[in-house]
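Predict the 3D structure for this chain.
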Amino acid sequence: MARARACVIVARMRFAYHVMSSPVGLLFLARSPKGLRHVEFMDRKSIKRMIANHTATTPDATWEPSLLELKDAVEQLEGYFCGALMDFKITFDMQGSDFQKACWKELTRIPYGETRTYGQIAKAIGQPKATRAVGLANNQNPLPIVIPCHRVIGANKTLTGYGGGLPRKKWLLQHEARFAIQGGLTPDLFAAASSRTGSKREGR
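Done. Predicted structure below.
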């Protein structure tokens, strides 16, 4: 009796993407069927190059432009930039190690209008000696702004490295400080963080 062979069809990963303008430059957004996967500063890179940057990790993926599928993320980011939104409610599809995910999850717990140091994040995730590793995880954050790695500053309360550049980090901190005050919140470390910069390249 002949054994029937099962035909297994593996669906290709599909990403929907959109480019939106913002006060900190063009942002490239991409989501998988599970949720938002990327928020990236485009600078002067083309869409083709942005997609090509991900071919090593998702070589067989298809990429399709779709504002509709990213409408919620776009609207929330627009709300954030105009000061009307302080907490994102977006489904994520982040890829990373357990350590990275623990760091990124802790970043989402930093309230709007507040900052934390790399050492504080390390202690919060139960790895008090992993300050440098926390900085590296910040640098590899796939969803800047949405996952607020810009709210992490140096131990001496100065700005340190940010994947989008220190001017963007300073802008984001000052933006949040301004609207936090208007909303009746008290920014804790913003005065120091937004006025001084450091040269260390620790995190995003």
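The longest strand covers residues 14-20.
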